[in-house]
Amino acid sequence: MATIEDVARAAGVSASTVSYVLSGKRSISAPTRRRVEHAIAELGYRPHAGARALASSRTNVIGLVAPLRSGVDVAVIMQFVTGVVTRAREFDHDVLLLTQDDTGGLERVAAGSMVDAIVVMDVEADDPRIPTLRALRQPTVLIGLPREPAGLSCVDLDFEAVGRLGATHLARTGHTDVALVGSPPEVMARHTSYADRVVRGFREACAEHGLRGEIEPCEPTPAGARHAVDAVLDRAPGTTGLLVHNERALPHVLAHLAERGRAVPDDVSLVAVCPTDVALAQSQPLTSIDIPAEVIGGVAVEMVLSRLRGEQPAETRLLAPVLTERDSTAVHEAHVSP
DNA sequence: CGGTTCGACTAGGCGACATT
DNA sequence: AATGTCGCCTAGTCGAACCG
Fold first, then answer.
1. What topology is assigned to A4-47 in CATH?
2. Which nucleotide is nearest to A54 (CA to C1')?
3. Residue A322 pLDDT more than 60?
4. Residue A34 CA to C3 C1' — how many Å?
5. What's the CA A25/C1' C8 distance, rounded, in angstroms?
């Protein structure tokens, strides 16, 4: 294996010059740079990551804690992961993936200086990992919003605004009886931050617009969707507007509405909260509030690296939701007077 | 061990001013 | 007017300290 000394010797310069060619941190004359680059190519030189970490106290690795467990949608998780990895590569960093179930993994990786910074996904309102994260010497960014975010950097879609936007859109289009078909019961019970916030925003907007607003958790299965839709329609048969925040249940909700003879959008308007590609992949293109997972993952990396450079104090960034109208919503005209 | 970083050194360019 | 030289600045490079 060629070392930086071998490259320096071949190029007729010192090791530090090779280092500066590689990092670009100081200017190097064009002829010298060419000789060094030629030697690097000739020898097939790759810097030794361990030695580099030793000298610079930087690993150029970001730790990512991802929730690969029941009740979460792996496809959506992967969109976040893609956003994180892609953006990290743009900043010349690699990503070390940790799963949520790997208790102690966070401390092991952080205390062992295996990573420069950490991104944590799927944060709960009172996440038990938060004291640990606060104590780490590496900067941390949470994807999600804990109840007490002071001192921590957080980024997320503004899910409270999502709940509000969904209900408000239905109110504005004439619906008075609406329902939120939400996350799976276990996600709700865990007080996963985003699920709570959607519910809160939805309730607020219903109160503000005088809507009757049912809230029903939903298992992401055909039976779960059937059960949730039935529960809503049993309690509130006049429901004409649905906000569905559960993308695996989406196709089953649509199917069961059809089974019950409720046409979308003529009888029931449906607003989905999901990534755009999911909204477009259903039996009809759905009006949706996008979950820009890749964007959020990318923003998390930017935030954590800027904190690493000491540029940014801890901050919370909530991305404003955007609703796109498609074929699953219509103006409700039940109360039009003759 | 194999890197990175910082301070120091050198060469060369440039303007101001003095000398021929 | 042409030439010399002084001081200062910058770009490019190196050596040594340092990392656990």
1. 434 Repressor (Amino-terminal Domain) (1.10.260)
2. C19
3. yes
4. 39
5. 25
pTM reported for the whole predicted model? 0.82
CATH topology of domain A61-157+293-321: Rossmann fold (3.40.50)
Q: Which structure tokens are listed for A333?
A: 């005209």
Q: How many angstroms is C1' of C20 away from CA of A136?
A: 19
Q: What percent of chain A has pLDDT over 70?
A: 98
- What's the rounded mean pLDDT across residues A309-335? 88
Q: How confident is the model at residue A111 (pLDDT cuts 50, 70, 90)?
A: confident
- The CATH 3.40.50.2300 domain(s) of chain A lie at 61-157+293-321, 159-291
Nucleotides of C under 7 A from a protein CB: 11-16, 18-20
Measure A14 CA to C6 C1' (Å). Answer: 33
Which of A's residues 55-114 have CB atoms within 7 A of nucleic strand C?
Answer: 55, 57
What's the CATH code, domain A159-291?
3.40.50.2300
A210 CB-to-strand C distance under 7 Å: no
How far apart are the C-alpha atoms of A271 and A112, rounded to whole Å? 46
Instruction: Find the nucleotide nearest A29 (Cα to C1′).
Output: C12
pLDDT band at A336 (very low <50, low <70, confident <90, very high): very low
Which pLDDT band, with edges at 50, 70 and 90, does A334 fall under?
low
Q: Read off the pLDDT of residues A234-280 as tens digits, 9 standing for 90 and up.
A: 999 999 999 999 999 999 999 999 999 999 999 999 999 999 999 99
* Cβ(A284)–Cβ(A256) below 8 Å: no
Closest by CA to A226, choosing from A269, A186, A271, A257, is A257
Contact present, A65 and A85 (Cβ < 8 Å): no
Gap between the Cα atoms of A17 and A1, Å rounded: 20
Q: CA A236, C1' C11: Å apart?
A: 77
